[in-house]
Amino acid sequence: MQVLFSQLIYGILIAGSMALPNTVMAQAGQMQPVTTYYDSARTMIKEQYHILDEDSTKIQGAYTKFYREGGIAAKGNFESGKLKGIFSEFYSGGAIQRTIPFDTGIKNGPVVVWSPEGDTLQTAHFVNDTLQGKVVEYYPGGQVKSQTSFVKGKPDGLIRTFYPDGNPKEELSYSQGVQQGLAQTFNEQGRLIRKANYTAGKPDGEVTDYYASGQVLNQAHFVSGVPHGITHSFAENGKMLSEEHFKEGFQEGASYFYYPDGKIKHELYYKNGKQQGAQKSYYPSGALETLLEAGNKKKVEKSYEKDGSLKSEKYYVGNTPEGTWKTYHPNGQIATEKHFVNGKLEGTLATYYPSGKVKQTEEFRKGKKTGTEKAYYPSGALERETQYYFGARQGDFKEYYENGQVKTAGQYNGNKKTGDWKSYTKQGLAEKKTEKP
Fold first, then answer.
1. Who's near 15: CB < 8 A, 6+ residues apart?
2. How many CA atoms lie within 13 A of 221 on its CB side?
3. Averaged pLDDT for residues 194-213
4. What is the domain partition of the chain in residue ranges?
5. Residue 168 CB: number of other CB atoms within 10 A?
6. Do residues 309 and 328 make contact, with C-beta atoms less than 8 angstroms apart?
7. Thinking of the domain 1-166, which architecture would CATH place it in?
8. pTM score
9. Closest to 115 measured CA to CA, from 95, 89, 101, 144
């Protein structure tokens, strides 16, 4: 909950010592007027007050502070350097902003904060410079927004917040500044949407979230602020959507997630918060979609089509790709094959047509494309050759007709075309037009 009183009340107090201009000598017991300015030309007054006995710490009598543009920003009274009576602050338009009562420099009595329109925004009470009793915050229309009880400057007892229509929003309990006991949250219709218990400022015991209908949404168990035990989530119709197990804040053992119809969606296993063993995901039909087998360091991830045929296989060391990765066409033929070393592509990346024929090959070194990239027609005839050097097109480029005749020939330098680029007919005759980069 936003504790607005700390920003509004403590932020307006004047520091114990003010920066004042040099003063002339004065006789003991005499008052000397002081004026400070915003500018060096002394045309914009900042403050006006008096001091006693040439001592800048002994402000005496009326004190007034002004806005740079003019108009009173704050005013009050001092006795021997200490605030006495009501200290008031004002908005730039002249409306009162807040008042604080002082008794010999100590806040004592009711504090009130207003909006520029004159609505009460907040009330509080100080006893010997310490918040005591209720701090009440209001909406602009006058409805209570929050109520907080203080004992010796610390929240103690029930804290309540409200919606603009007066319905309760939140109820918390504090003891000596620490959240303790039942905490409840309500929606705008007044229905309970969250309930928890706190011990020493931390969730302890059951924490439950609710749908507006009253049906349980989430339910978890906490010990000293961390989840411990079984956590459930539910659909609004009451069907379970998940079941997870925690031990001292870490996931432990089996976790299950379900489709709304009750069929299993994910089946996961953890040890000390890390995935271990077989992790499974399922299609709504119940068919296996992915299988992740996690050991201490290595992981194998396989995905499947709805008919059960293999769709892809990936290998990891930790979370870093390693080894040969493959994807498959629905007919079972390999679609792509690539190799990782320490998380970077290395060697040939091959792409295949569903027929099994090569569609394209690319060469990699330390994750950068280097060497000859070749593309092929479905018939197997060469379609294109491109030279690469550490990720950039560099050197000869040739494109072919399916009959094997050169279609286009040229060169690249740093991904940019260079030199003359020539085009040919299917019969191998040079076309008249020559492209210049």
1. none
2. 11
3. 96
4. 1-166
5. 14
6. yes
7. Alpha-Beta Complex (3.90)
8. 0.72
9. 95
